[in-house]
Design goal:
five-stranded antiparallel sheet; alpha/beta; Rossmann fold; 460 residues; 13 strands; 49% helix; five-stranded parallel sheet
């Protein structure tokens, strides 16, 4: 009896720690600041999805403050109008890919003194400007989370032209970010080391493999999942969606379980049933993230919805939730525990998928707003006319495109962005309002409900 009471006391403490160990709290406003890798948003979309499904009663506002092509200088110029305007409680910063100036690097090592000096100056400028960015936030009592840059894939055997040496420059930036973290006693997430190690291991088996896209710069869906994993791991995000434990003494089941409430446990011949309300939802994985799941144990570390039943023999048992069959398992499997998050046919997982669908709409609207920001901060920043006169704006953008980008490597990209701007600019308020509404809708959709579990022995 004393042993059981001790176990219950320990698990009560675990529940208490679980509730307190999150980086972000209800009401926080978190700005992710960076370049195109941040503007694309995959990694912080995963982080947002984790927090929405894991803590549905603690609404947090995650805000995309990335702009493609940005360097530290650009962030300083748009600080008031594009970042501080959101009144953030937290700023999560990742810069460097553009600051190292990839144009100073070629397919082969370069020993030209002038070029080496330009590279050094670029990194020195990065250091000074990054420190300035951090200080702006700290002086306003905004909590800062630093992120080391992602890698540039200079080792993959792919068609894309290789700017050899860029990844080494990014390592220098990453080392500086660690220095900055030590200086100001700030948390830091190290993407560079983890992604470089994973990429190196992949390429030992397949020289053409990469967790970065074919442009050597932008991680794909798998890379962004790996980044989210590293962020959650570094910030010690909780592992359990819930842990449902049906003890031999069913009276203790509620105290032994984590992040859920059990009731009406009825033991019957060959099985039993009970009701449970979990406080969280499992993390819904996208189809395009499957390779990422092979490279990092995301589900095992951050989406464990465990069902443990200590009653059964080695016979087979069927589990149903809300009268829907989930699967059949041996008594041995059930006593060790099964992770329901791996079963996408549960009502809980389907609900989480609904949350993801709403957030996908939000992220699309947010991407449209970042397109507006990209054009205004990078091209229309020197425009002297009226931005509401879209005819004149279009004429100006067409002239810039013809003069600067028509024959350039990124011509098609700039053309598409300029065309989108003309279409999206009048919709700015509509998009902003829609984003705010979808944030509320996502948390409403994430509210957990009670489910009826039934376990019965399979007769052969």
């Amino acid at each position: 009896m004393k042993k059981i009471k001790f176990i219950i006391l320990i698990l009560a403490l675990v529940n208490s720690i679980y509730a307190q160990s999150t980086l972000f709290k209800a009401g926080d406003r978190v700005c992710f600041v960076g370049n195109s890798i941040t503007a694309g948003g995959g990694f912080h979309h995963n982080i947002s999805l984790y927090y929405t499904t894991r803590f549905p009663d603690q609404p947090i506002t995650f805000i995309n403050c990335g702009v493609p092509g940005d360097q530290c200088d650009n962030v300083l110029r748009r600080m008031d109008s594009d970042i501080l305007i959101h009144h953030p409680t937290h700023a999560v910063i990742k810069l460097g890919m553009n600051d190292v100036m990839r144009k100073y690097y070629g397919a082969l090592p370069i020993n030209n003194a002038d070029t080496l000096r330009l590279r050094e100056n670029a990194i020195n400028t990065y250091k000074v400007k990054f420190d300035s960015i951090v200080n702006i936030f700290l002086k306003r009592n905004i909590k800062v989370i630093l992120q080391k840059p992602t890698i540039y894939d200079q080792t993959a055997v792919i068609k894309r032209e290789n700017n050899f040496g860029v990844n080494d420059a990014l390592k220098t930036c990453a080392d500086y970010i660690q220095t900055l973290a030590d200086k100001y006693q700030l948390p830091v997430v190290d993407y560079w080391t983890m992604m470089n190690n994973i990429n190196s291991d992949l390429q030992k088996k397949d020289p053409g493999a990469t967790i970065i896209g074919q442009d050597r710069v932008h991680p794909g869906a798998d890379g962004h999942l790996i980044m989210a994993y590293q962020f959650l791991k570094t910030t010690k995000a909780p592992k359990y969606v819930a842990q449902i434990i049906i003890d031999n003494n069913t009276k203790h089941s509620n105290q032994l379980s984590i992040n859920c409430t059990l009731k009406n446990v009825e033991v019957k011949k060959g099985g039993f049933k009970f009701k449970v309300k979990e406080n969280a939802l499992p993390f819904p994985i996208a189809e395009e993230q499957k390779l990422g799941l092979e490279l990092v144990p995301f589900i095992d570390d951050f989406s464990v919805e465990q069902l443990v039943i200590n009653h059964f023999t080695a016979n087979k048992y069927e589990i149903s939730i809300d009268d829907s069959l989930i699967g059949s398992f041996s008594g041995t499997e059930l006593s060790k525990g099964i992770n329901l998050a791996n079963y996408h046919n549960t009502p809980q997982y389907k609900q989480a998928d609904t949350v993801k669908t709403i957030l996908n709409k939000l992220w699309k609207d947010e991407a449209d707003l970042r397109t507006i920001a990209f054009v205004e901060y990078n091209t229309l920043n020197s425009y002297q006319g009226n931005l509401n006169d879209l005819g004149a704006v279009k004429t100006y953008l067409d002239s810039v495109y013809n003069d600067k980008f028509l024959k350039g490597e990124y011509g098609a990209y700039y053309k598409s962005q300029f065309e989108k701007y003309i279409k999206l600019s009048p919709m700015r308020k509509l998009l902003t309002d829609e984003v705010e509404k979808l944030r509320v809708d996502a948390y409403k959709a994430a509210q957990t409900v009670e489910h009826q579990f039934a376990i019965k022995e399979v007769k052969y």
